[in-house]
Each structure stands twice: as structure tokens, then as C-alpha cells.
Amino acid sequence: MTSHSCDVARREVLRLGLYAGGLAALGVPMSFGGIARAAEAAASGRILVVVELSGANDGLNTVVPYRDDDYYRARPRLGIRADKLRKVDDAFGFQSGMAGFERLYKEGRLAIVHGVGYDQPSFSHFSSMAYWHTGAPNSGAAYGWLGRLADGMDPAGTADYLVNIDSHQSLAVRARSHVPLVFDDPDKFLRTAAFEEESALRAVVTSRDVGNPTQRFLLEVADSAQNAEPRLRQACAEYRTPVDYGLVHFGLDKVAALISAGFPTRIYYVAFRNNAFDTHVQQSDVHARLLTYTSDHIAAFLHDMDRIGRGDDVCVMAFSEFGRRVAENANLGTDHGTAGTLFIAGKRVKGGHYGKMPSLVDLDDGNMRYTTDFRRVYATLIREWMNHSDVSAVLGRDFEGLGVIG
Description:
This protein is an alpha/beta fold. The protein is built from 13 helices and 12 strands.
């Protein structure tokens, strides 16, 4: 390794894409030499699981305000009639395929947060998702809110706080001091690199001559990767559960396998990918299927956590980058909007409705006016769930929580 390569700053190493099979799919500074200690720590710590519903889910046709005539006036063809819904109270009902969410709600384990958004909203999937990922709208922040949370809870970066189930690393988990473990298919979880990087990676893995802190960091991460690969594959291959995770598995089954295996991860990030919820055309049937898959998968995961004795330790938050416009479009779909609906679920969650349902007639250019800043949800999870008091360090300033956690 040349002296120039040894001088690469730690933060630059984290930035360079050591993920999803690069040196930082690695991300397990999981210090596997102390696996028993790590498993013991994991068993006593709360776990946050964030689910991204990419493409902007239509909240109005997810949690349907069936008593509001303005809903049916705006959606004469897409509006779902009351007798086709799973009613949860005298004002709202889930789509008919959302049996899992209905069950969680009736168990008192599902919080529905209405009117979630932010000032000066972007209608770009890329930009808006970046704002959600960073928790800092219109800022260009370099690190994700979950990455900053991990840095705040463990400034030294010595624990394995972050796992990202995806083919590439999300901005949400990008951190200054932590390297997230990023993988999609456990059987293909191998360290790979561009041709130009391979010699450097081989030198890092084989070298034991530590000349400076940067070299030591690289060596520790490389050693961790070598241990992480077989353990991760083994955990996923050996996990057995009688719980049906639904027709579409988008990652929570893998999270369950790692939790069951004693991985010390505190934060998991999972995405329902490929802009699936971007329903501009012929929305009705496609959206119904997506919601069934989502509802089944999340509910199954939480009940599986009960089965293995970790139900009290896990909280799930599911979000989209924005909602859809109130009125249906000419293609029997809905276009990009603003305020949306968000879900928080878990055994320690106080179920019910949070935030104010926006008006469907007092609109901003056809869009609902948001009533709940999404950073209030983040603040709730940071302070009430993860027991981290310095919300300002994560979000730039303090935000009032929602009181969702019991």
C-alpha cells in the first residue's frame, strides 16, 4: 500500500462506496471476536426498523376517510366505498387487503400519523427522499438522520448500529463514524470492488503491519468483513419460522434472521424498492396489491418478533417521500402530492391516530396542507424509543414528540 493510500482520511474511506459488497458491506465493525458480548448487548437494547415505501404512497387510499364526502367528490372513480373497507373506527378504514394492519391496529400496536410533510415540499422523488433520508429538507446534508443517530449514540463507531437491506447504501444510514452493513442477497454477500481497487483491498486484508490510525481502521474493517460474510449467510440460511411473511418479501424476514441470531444491530433500514408506489396510471388494483404485500410483511415480522421473545424490543416505522394529490387524474391514477400518511408499529407503541387529518378542500394548488412535520416523528423515535436525548444533534434543532411510545 502506498503512503498516499495510507493517508486517506477515515471519513473519505466511509464515503468511497465500501458497501453492498464493497469493503463496507463490511460495515460490521461488529467485532465478531466478542460475539457473546455483542449478543448480550443486543438482547437488552431497543431496535428501530425503518421501512421505506418508495414512489410516494397514496395515503388517502390507504387509510380512507370514508365519512368525508369531499373524498368521494375528488375521487369519483378511485374513491373506495365504505362497504369495501376494513373499518377501524367511525371515520377511517383500511383497504380490504390490509388484514395485517387491521390486526395490529385492533391489538393497539399500530399508530397512524396523518398529514405528514414539511415546508416548501419537493415533488421530485429524488429530492424529497433525500430530505427524508437526511432529516434536513432543502439542506444538502451529507449524512443521514439514522447515521447521525448512530454517531450520537456511539461516537466511537465501535458498535454495529446500522444494517441496510438493499442493493446499495441509502443516504439515511450514511454516517461519519459508522460503516453500515449493506446487503441484499445473503448468498451473494461477498466483498467485491472495481478493478482499480482490488490490489488495495488485498493489501488491507493481508497486511498486519499497522503504521497509523487509518491503516488500523482499514484493517479492522477488512477483518470484520471476513467474519461478517459467513455469519450473515449462516444466520439467514438457518433461520426457520412458521410465520408467513406474505407473497412479497422485501427484507424484514432477513432482519428477523439477524435479530434471532443475536446480531447487535440497533438500527435496520429496509426498502420496498423500485418506485413501486408511484401510481400515476390505473392505480386501483396495483395499489391494493402493494398495500396487501406491505401490510402482510410488516405484521408478520412483528408477530415473529413476539414468537422469538423480542416483541418488546422492536419498533417499525413505515414512510413514503410524499403523498399524492387529492383529486384523481384522467388516467385513473394519482399524481405527486404533499402530505402523506405514516405508520409506527410495535408492542410498545400506543396505537391510534396522531396528527390532524388535513382538509380535503382547503388545499394548496390541489394538495393537502401538511399538519405534522415528519421530523416530529423522527424526534419521537430518537427520544421516546431509542432513549437518545440529544435530538438537536441529529435533526439540527429540537422537535416535539408525538407521545406514541408507551
